What does this fold into?
Amino acid sequence: MNAADITRLTQEALEEVRLAADTAALEAVRIKYLGRKGLLPQLMKALKDVAPEERPEFGRQANTFKQEVGAALKARGQELGAGPAHTATLFDCTVPGQWRGLGSRHPISQVIEEATRIFHSLGFTVADGPDIETEYHNFDALNTPDDHPSRDIQDTFWLETGELLRTQTSPVQIRVMEKQPPPVRIIAPGRCYRRDTTDATHSANFHQIEGLYVDTHVSMAELKSDLTYFARQMMGPKVNIRFRPHFFPFTEPSVEYDFSCHLCDGRGCRVCKNSGWIEISGAGMVDPAVFSIVGYDPEAVTGYAFGMGVERIAMIKYGIHDIRLLYDNDLRFLQQF
Ligand code: PHE
It folds into this structure.
């Protein structure tokens, strides 16, 4: 093949373009000449076999071939109605777009955000800690002895490193107090893990919001009033709160606390199992032993701490009867919030 051949082939190609009767025929011409296995790539391959003195002219002709045939294809395409100019007139900008729908926040995130807003208004900031905790932060520093049942392999996900998936958000208390001197006023929302068999009210993976307030004169009265304020902001203005004596290794005295049922005003209904009360979680005054462990002077400061179950609050607030619904990722469920 030489330069003259290319000139002839160019004429042939232009003629075929001119004769193409519809866009399909035109496309066939394009493939034949400019396609991946078409004539143009063959020309480019042939270039290396051309005698060196003929190469420049051969290259020039090949280039002309590419440009002229390309331009002719484009022009003919527009004539046949496939060109961009024509498509533009077919585009109806008044047709409604395809709506993909906005996402919404997961109920667990909604409760955490709402709780953060409420505690923020009481002067709390948000603290954070790792999901993979040291045994020290999750248990020892929280005054929880070696033989405590929650340290059992049955209750806790232990890792081969000796670390564990935190069973509670309370280790964040320790991490915060290790890092800063009093006063402290933080909440710590986050994921927790326990070896629970999953059922309608248990999940091996759940969320808590920890609270810690340490200063010189913090009392149980403040614990109760702050939790009451929270309960009324979160569940409704008539909600009451009650403390029941309990035990936690890291608070003394310790309580479990309940909200009065926001649905029946405490009279008794299905949601509160006719008791009028809904259990939220534990709380108490920070045990002086914990202050000593983190290097605070137990004679100088007092503090309260609480934990609350996020799923539990979400379930009673939104009337969700099965905790598993919160983790199924079923859009029919999630779109309701
Ligand atoms: N961490 C405790 C639990 O998971 C709850 C708690 C938090 C109790 C803070 C007292 C103070 O059960």
Q: What stands out?
A: The domain at 107-334 is CATH 3.30.930.10 (BirA Bifunctional Protein; domain 2). The radius of gyration is 36 Å.
